[in-house]
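User: My advisor, Dr. K., asked me to get a structural model of this assembly before our group meeting. I'm new to this, so sorry if the format is off. These are the inputs:
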Amino acid sequence: MAATDAPALRSARGGYPGFWGMAWRRMRRNRPATVAGAIIVAFVLFAILADVIAPHDPYQQFFKRGEAAVDSLGRISNGKFEAPSLDHLFGTDELARDIFSRTLIGLRISLGAAFFAIVVVTTIGVTLGLVSAAGPRWLDDLVMRGTDIAYAFPDLLFIILLRAAFGDSLFGMRSIAGVDTGLLLLFLAISLTAWPTVARLVRGQVLSLRETEFSTAAQALGASRSRIAVRHWLPNAAGPVIVEATFLVPRAIFAEAALSFIGLGPPPPTPSLGLLISSHYSFVTVQWTALAFPVAVLSVLFVVFQFFGDGLRDALDPRSSRA
Amino acid sequence: MTTYLIRRVLWTVVTLFFISLITFVLMHTVPGGPFEVRAGDRGASESFIRAAESYYGLNDPIPEQFVRMLGNLLQGDLGLSFSQRGQRVTDLMLDKIKPSFILGAMSFAMVVGLGVPLGILAAVRRNTVWDYSALGLTTLLAAIPHFVLAFIMLLVFAVGLGVVDVRLGKGFGDSLASLPNGILPAVALGAPSMALLSRITRGAMVEILDQDYMRTARAKGLSSSAIYIRHGLRNAMIPVLTLLGPIFAGLITGSIIIESIFGLPGIGAAFVTSIHQRDYGMIMGTTLFYAVIIMTVNLIVDLIYPLVDPRVRVT
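Assistant: The format is fine. Below is the predicted structure of the whole assembly, which you can bring to the meeting.
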């Protein structure tokens, strides 16, 4: 890099940007990732404010009788399978419920559950990875053979089995902290297939970090093994884990929708995106827009998290950037 | 090499044991036994359910059932099906594997036949409109969930144009005439893999094209087809070849949803039915079948890798 470029690298505070500062810079230069990030922020806001934005109660039925059932053109409509209108932006479903409001709630469920999955997966994965790399040999063997078995077990099959075995309630509770138990258990099942990747990732990172000079230096300064692990290894291994966690979101959303489609999703009437898609699919020949909207939301969600994840990977690991 | 192979195969057997143990525990945890679930719809008597359960040995202690199942499994027997009376699970599975296998093979042919040439085209015509179009197409295909693509195709071809039936997978694999019905499912199933393969091919090819020996080949006056195929493609194929194994395994074991959407009578759709019906033999058989495919493919890839890339040694 030319010497004249150096001042431009300085941040506002006068210092040089650190690892995360550089990553932030690279991220902002990546146009698709920035756009994806903005859309994700918008989606998260929509999900958080779903109650406020939703024009109708997602469970209310808008059946029409008598005079109200005849529209301005003289056609008869009982309120079911309505096409998109100003009152019902995405139309109404087979029980005359407002699809727009239901999709908003579905978005909240899918995103919330995906973040739940991230927390579970990174907690299990990072702990096991760290323990595996830093702990005794037999523990390492145990964890790694465990990941071998998990890799050989077909993902979707395992999720379906777990889902069927867990059922819809836990200790007789149908909902935990306001969240449907069946839904929570479903995402727990999804999480249980994803931890091996994170565990192997962290283990590999820590094994190479253990050989670095700053690690030896910390040891020479008298830092305890656990302090080195938490203060020095973990932050340095964080990048790939964050990327992996981002890719977990589309996978979790995909698995939820796929399971709903084969009748093993969260129990109705909870309007998860998967349930909306699979139930609207049954009347696609009557009103195809009812299917198109939730599918579009799901696809956009899927796409933006992939782009964002790709961008993050390039930003956090400059060596991997493509030619 | 031989010790490596023996160790790998032994470990595969151990893994299969653990997978069958986990599957066994999980499927017995699923609430409701096979006959309670089915009898509920028909109003069968309590005594009938007990009789059926004792006939299939479902009242024995769970560990005893597991050991008995393992014993039968070692002889290649998965027992009788609970849902299809009098049929052996192994026979039923062979019936179901055929359509899934044909679908997977069709999809694989499409993935390789389109993905690799597209990647080469994008690499050779780097940073032109060809490259960018390929990038756009593959990004789109990789980002859309495969069942969404299936919906879109059904909307266009079944609902819009009306050229195919909504459940066009019915009877797939029974006759030659039914094979064209597999095209849409195969496309939906393979699109993400096709995109991935084409991106990997492009990346590998671009790297090779920048090598000094490519310039040397050009300077020697070789024709461009000789340069691209003999010097470029052969070297670029190493990462591509190792990806083909997992892609093939993924296509065979990943068709659960696609089969259900198109009503295709394959092993994936059968697994979903067997879960609903608590057909223990079918659940166990499908899980082990998938696991064997995944592990066999991984083993083959690990064995082939040193052959195509002499720099890698098996230890």
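One thing worth pointing out at the meeting: Residues 1-7 of chain A have pLDDT under 50 and may be disordered.

User: Perfect, thanks a lot.
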